[in-house]
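Need residues for this backbone.
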């Protein structure tokens, strides 16, 4: 039996994957396929009474591809959004009779919402992959900061670092001697796009005043007696494409503060004895352990220079104000020293506790020096606290009587802090320690604080 054309056409339309839409020359809808309601949110019987100009104006779909065909009488294809939240790829074709008279237009719409979602997810995956590739590069170049638990004030410090590292803004690091300003400056450099280029560290307090200008800006041949033939590049030129770190910036003489101000304003340098302006091609990070505002009042530091270098100011707290990260910091330094000297020595819990309770006026530098000296000079692989080892420093715990519960809590705290530094989420910590996640959460809150629990 032969299938009738009208039955065949109706069946094709009914089961078509695409939504079919037909209008006349006025834009009135004369036919839609059954998928109309799902795609546009309007039943078939209501849609055929509508006009495409009105439908487009009401946002039922936008843009209207059939309106475009009415205007151009050519094939048109658009990406179309609907008020039901769908996204379609829609193609429309003009309809002509045998005499070439224009009768209207027919469109075919295919829902690509899921494809768009997958594309977006693919883009997100690509961005994530790029992020981790950058992380791997940073790790390869030693740019990742210590794995110690960053909490409280240091968490805020590294949050600012992560925001400014990729921007070529001048950064001013403030903090007591030994808090790790040079380490933080290197971290900013290694997290930036300049990481492949030099990081030049200049201690402004260690260079004789008579040599400082030529050391910083370089000199031309014949600039002064003893000048090298052909001249010499200064630190600013040596840092080309990278970062120059001006430590102890407060020690810079006033006449050189004027020249540095000019460099920052004009983004050029001039060698001693020369006239040629050389474009500045490095980032500047400054640091000091002095109160620059007070030095300004004492006329020892230029106010205009202060505002030039103080674009982003990061204050690094002293180690005595970072008790929450002390234990993890001690373990990190110990591991670093062990790797440096190819050793495998460890401190006892009592020793770690004693170390974490000292004020360390010299901050991280003094703590590192003590740990390094102790590891090198100790004959034992497992280093216990003793009075001879700690010297004039008095042990807080050795003179204090502890109950068994108190001592066990001290051990547990040190252990939880150390393990959380390696596995910084309640899920990972619970899995590693063989405890429930709720127990891990409780321990983390107890020893690190309520706001520091990471559950992912």
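Answer:
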């Amino acid at each position: 039996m032969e299938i009738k054309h009208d039955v065949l056409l109706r069946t094709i339309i009914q089961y078509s994957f695409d939504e079919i839409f037909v209008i006349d020359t006025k834009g009135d809808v004369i036919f839609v396929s059954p998928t109309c309601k799902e795609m546009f949110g309007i039943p078939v019987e209501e849609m055929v009474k509508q006009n495409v100009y009105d439908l487009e104006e009401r946002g039922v779909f936008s843009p209207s591809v059939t309106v475009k065909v009415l205007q151009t009488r050519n094939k048109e294809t658009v990406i179309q959004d609907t008020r039901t939240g769908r996204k379609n790829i829609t193609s429309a074709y003009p309809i002509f009779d045998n005499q070439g008279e224009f009768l209207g237009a027919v469109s075919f719409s295919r829902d690509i919402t899921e494809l768009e979602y997958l594309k977006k997810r693919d883009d997100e995956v690509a961005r994530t992959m790029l992020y981790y590739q950058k992380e791997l590069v940073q790790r390869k170049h030693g740019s990742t900061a210590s794995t110690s638990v960053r909490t409280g004030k240091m968490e805020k410090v590294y949050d600012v670092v992560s925001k400014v590292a990729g921007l070529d803004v001048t950064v001013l690091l403030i903090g007591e001697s030994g808090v790790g300003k040079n380490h933080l400056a290197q971290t900013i450099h290694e997290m930036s796009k300049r990481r492949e280029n030099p990081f030049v560290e200049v201690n402004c307090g260690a260079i004789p005043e008579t040599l400082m200008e030529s050391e910083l800006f370089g000199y031309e041949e014949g600039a002064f007696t003893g000048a090298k033939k052909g001249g010499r590049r200064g630190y600013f030129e040596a840092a080309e494409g990278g970062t120059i770190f001006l430590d102890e910036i407060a020690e810079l003489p006033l006449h050189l503060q004027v020249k540095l101000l000019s460099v920052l304003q004009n983004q050029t340098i001039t060698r001693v004895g020369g006239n040629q302006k050389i474009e500045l091609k490095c980032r500047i990070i400054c640091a000091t352990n002095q109160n620059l505002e007070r030095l300004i009042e004492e006329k020892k530091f230029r106010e205009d220079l202060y505002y030039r270098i103080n674009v982003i100011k990061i204050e690094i707290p002293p180690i005595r104000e970072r008790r929450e990260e002390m234990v993890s910091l001690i373990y990190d330094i110990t591991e670093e020293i062990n790797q440096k000297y190819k050793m495998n020595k460890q401190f006892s819990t009592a020793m770690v506790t004693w170390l974490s309770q000292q004020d360390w006026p010299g901050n991280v530098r003094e703590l590192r020096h003590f740990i390094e000296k102790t590891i090198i000079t100790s004959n034992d692989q497992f280093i216990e606290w003793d009075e001879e080892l700690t010297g004039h420093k008095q042990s807080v715990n050795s003179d204090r009587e502890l109950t068994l519960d108190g001592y066990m809590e001290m051990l547990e705290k040190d252990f939880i802090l150390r393990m959380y530094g390696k596995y910084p989420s309640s899920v990972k910590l619970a899995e590693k320690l063989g405890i429930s996640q709720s127990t891990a959460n409780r321990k983390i809150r107890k020893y690190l604080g309520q706001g520091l629990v990471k559950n992912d």
